[in-house]
Amino acid sequence: MAGTGVFEEIADENSVYKFYSESEWRKSSSGKSVPIINPTTRQTHFRVQACTQDEVNKIIETAKTAQKLWAKTPLWKRAELLHKAAAVLKEQKVPIAECLVKEIAKPAKDAVTEVVRSGDLVSYCAEEGVRILGEGKFLVSDSFPGNERTKYCLTSKIPLGVVLAIPPFNYPVNLAVSKIAPALIAGNSLVLKPPTQGAVAALHMVHCFHLAGFPKGLISCVTGKGSEIGDFLTMHPGVNCISFTGGDTGIAISKKAGMIPLQMELGGKDACIVLEDADLDLATANIVKGGFSYSGQRCTAVKVVLVMESVADTLVEKVKAKVAKLTVGPPEDDCDITPVVTESSANFIEGLVMDAKQKGATICQEYKREGNLIWPLLLDHVRPDMRIAWEEPFGPVLPVIRINSVEEGVHHCNASNFGLQGSVFTRDINKAILISDAMETGTIQINSAPARGPDHFPFQGLKDSGIGSQGITNSINMMTKIKSTVINLPTPSYTMG
User: Fold this and answer.
1) 22, 419, 487, 490: which could form a disulfide with 152 (CB 3.0–4.6 Å)?
2) Which residues pair with 139 in a beta bridge?
3) Rounded to two decimals, what is the model's pTM?
């Protein structure tokens, strides 16, 4: 059970979950809490502390002090502690997964997978960090015109300081550790602000790092209302780097954050282009998996299918047949389609569907909704004047736009303000590469649905889909700076061969 056993100390006598500061679980001086609504029952299931700005100030002050000592900790020792945290995370996969089921209606099996994957990510990051950070560069001055060999330059990577990590609701454990592990191995301290939906799972995850024995004050987790501490955190002068995954909020953060490195992934409208020569069974399987896994609540979900008219009827029938087999219901039953995270999300999705219906889209299944639960829906004959053609539903609704040329499909993809991922299905590798090069997205998948992982692959978006690149190596590099030490010689010095 969540909040019991090794996790007993993270909740108070009223079952309100505490925040984490200076290696202790604490109640906020505000005396207030924030409710977390179970998407399935639509009732309050958990409560977390509503932290104050004074508590944020204290956390960041502590983080700055702890970071100075952590930066002096040998790389192998940092890695050793990360490996311990990964092991504890995997050991405690069941109670953490229970939180994901109750907080964000993630199917039980997928919830366990997220926690195990997170442990693997932490271990991989520990190993990769030792390799990356253990290497520097040696430069000599006479490689640049007009210079003798009178200067030797030694470069190394140094930590930035305090990293603020803000993960989204849909992967509150995995996308938290994808920020935490690179920050820590690089010698930074870490302040985590989890999403409200997913906060309790994140607090359980943080306790795994606590049990691994990280130094006091190095890791903190602050909960509360974004309206009260959100801007205060992201604009805090003590924060040296922000890693954020989410939606439009990220654009606002980027305008306010100031002169610090930003790593952001802000959503997508991932297009799937299907050509006449595609393996339609392969395309169908990936479209259904890509469009409807976790009820479509994924940044890398297939958000629009652009299919050549000559094969559109066949593809749509195949997709309809697979959609009909998807199970719908509570996450505890491991259903394919579970309730979306909030009622406002369900209302937004319904608005997109009604707009498309009014403008003449073909509704391939009966539209059905009960509370936050929306049955999977395929919309055919979608046109560019419909909202669903451009807006990100973040739900189990997939539009199909019929195209008459590759150029038309690429144009639609590139006209979007998003540019996270895209996919193309064809048996012709030459066409696939040409289309891949033409699509303005951070990643193109050839003959597969979009996906973020494996977690060491580079992951980045263009346009409104983000700033910088994620993936274990990229994140470690982003959370460090280059420092140079130049040795000036009195006379030119050359190695004799």
Assistant:
1) 487
2) 153
3) 0.96
